[in-house]
Amino acid sequence: MKIGLCLGGGGSRGYAHIGAIRALTEAGIKIDIVNGTSIGAIMGGMYALYLDIDTMTVLVKKVVESVRVNHFNLFRHSSEGPAFLRSWLNEAVCDVAALQKSIQSNKNTVKALELIFNRHRFEDTKIPFSAIATDIIAGETVIIKKGKLVDGVLASAAIPAIFPPVIRGKRVLVDGYVLANIPVPQLRSQGADFIISIGLLDLPSSAYQNGVDLLYYIESLKQQRLEQWAIAQSDFHINVDMSQFDSSHFENYLTAIEKGYRTTQQVIPQLLAKLEQAHV
Amino acid sequence: MSEPITLVLGGTGIKGIASIGALQSFHNHDIKIKKIIAAGISAPASAQFALGKNPDTLIDEFTRFFAENYRSLWGLEQLSGLLQSPRRDVLGSFSYFLRERTYCQANFQNASVLSWEKIDPQITQLFGNYSFSDLKIPLAVSVIDLKQGRNILVQQGKLNDCLKASMAFPGILPPVPVGEMELVSSTIFCDLPLDNLTENDAPVLTVDIPIPFVGIKPRTLLEVISIVDDISNRGIKEKLLANTDYLFRLDGIEKFRWGDYHEIPEIVKQARIETDLLLEKTSLP
After folding, report:
1. What pLDDT, in 10s, does the model give residues B89-141?
2. pLDDT at B257
3. CA distance A95 to A78
């Protein structure tokens, strides 16, 4: 019986996945196959490639220290900051919105992913791994399991409007969160028998000052609904409460890792019981 | 047909007006309706029907409103065709840039592009004195309560504000405060209000007013957001459609855009014809 690990998206909150994987491995749970969306794909790819938590932590430290990976989530922060700055920023963003495909380039994300994955390919991973993206031409979720890890994971983490879509053949790919932030059905379709999914809980605020805040909030409600359906198909779901973490700031990785570790450790007895029931 | 049905009606933007055509067809075929669950413009259309009033009045009101306000709504009509404007010449691109920028700017400065000022008198004139208890067929209006952060059905109280809320598409019209709640249209979540069905609602007949999926390479950030929003709506709708017993998909309405208010009479007519045909083909319980 194959145990699958499904890692959800959520920006920098996804460092919690490292802690969660540490807790799982310490409990002797052997992962046979892994997939992930966005940061879940970055962490999942790293684990599948190195199968070593310490290496993952070292690589994350290296990225945080050498690449500027924080991104500006306009849709979350559109009504924050001093009025004059907001006004200037909003004007600039309106021009960008009407002329370009994204607020910023993915140059730094590529640098970060190259530090992590080097020239490795999906075929090089020690256990099967796939990254989940959304094809906006076909309007469907895509499972990426071939080619360079940097390219596949980049598409999975291309947050629409913040980063540009990634062209891959005839496909135009953005972050997989659009339909599959916790890609449980996709992992099932790849042969996982028992799926452990990890979600990064966020509690979006309903307070709004303008239409952009409002649209962002509604979008998060839609994602929550889609996630609920995916989680229902998981055999064991671990919800790490990351609502206190800002998903666009990547410096607090140690706290996030610790949070993932503690949360997972607490549910290990229930997970082991569930695995035993399933005769794993 | 002997067993009364629950009718689910939705649709994005002005296309929800197609519900009038569907309701006329159900009425002509003597289909018994025990409850209507409606979202978007389908809600005022259903309220008019459930009050036993002539739906033509509503069509006339909507048509007159848009005819009188065409100058201020021109941008909205064009915006509804953002992804369907493949023009890339200088003039087309410039006009496109201006429309997108206007939409974006309005949503940074305010809660939406339009205000209720011009729409309020029309809604009040049609529904101002009525409550849900005046309806001859029970109606549940699907909206999102921002305070609770979820999709809810409103089935009691005054009709006026609730029907406004059903049309308050975020980004286009501002939220509507009703008591402790702050309501917006649920069509932004899913264009069909299928999220709150109960076992008692069975059998459920859903009228789907489809939106074309435009799989094109996006040129701008707003196009990216628009496509992504459409994809997640489709994902939600696909899941929720499993809750319906009968699905009437009005394919002929697909070609219309959500801001095609010039086409209101044609949309209604087309919906009536298609519903007639579907009723002839379907054996309801």
Report:
1. 666 667 777 777 777 777 777 778 788 887 888 888 888 889 999 999 999 99
2. 80
3. 15
Are the C-beta atoms of residues A35 and A8 closer than 8 Å to each other?
A: no
Closest Cα partner for A51 from A21, A88, A19?
A21
Q: Is the pLDDT of residue B86 over 60?
A: no
3-state secondary structure string across A208-257? CCCHHHHHHHHHHHHHHHHHHHHHHCCCEEEEEECCCCCCCCCCCHHHHH
Cα dihedral sign for A221, A226, A228, A229? positive
Residues 209-228 on B with a CB inside 8 Å of A are 213, 215-225, 227-228
Q: Cis peptide before B203, with omega less than 30 degrees from 0?
A: yes
* Single-letter amino acid code for the residue at A155: A
ipTM of predicted complex: 0.89
**Entry field: residues in chain B:** 285
Longest Cα separation, chain A: 62
d(CA A279, CA B191): 43
**3-class SS of residue B142:** strand
Q: What's this model's pTM, rounded to 2 decimal places? A: 0.89
CB-based contact B114:A211 (threshold 8 Å) = no
Each residue of A167-198: pLDDT tens digit?
A: 999 999 999 999 999 999 999 999 999 999 99
pLDDT of res. B7: 97
The 10s digit of each residue's pLDDT in B35-80 is 999 999 999 999 999 998 887 887 887 788 777 776 666 666 666 6
**Distance, in angstroms, between A170 CA and closest chain B CA?**
10
pLDDT score at A71: 60
Please count the residue pairs, one from chain A and one from chain B, whose beta carbons lie less than 8 angstroms apart: 137
| Secondary structure E strands in chain B | 5-9, 33-38, 139-145, 150-154, 176-178, 181-185, 204-208, 246-249
d(CA B247, CA B244): 7
Task: Tell me if B221 and A223 make a contact (CB, 8 A cut-off).
Answer: no
- A212 neighbourhood in chain B, CB within 8 Å: 107-108
Identify whether the C-beta of residue A235 lies closer than 8 Å to the C-beta of residue A194. yes
Dihedral sign for Cα A215, A216, A222, A226, please. positive
Closest CA to B18 of B258, B279, B278: B258
* Nearest CA distance, B101 vs chain A (angstrom): 6
Q: Residue B235 is nearest to which of A172, A179, A217, comparing CB atoms?
A: A179
Mean pLDDT of B29-38: 95
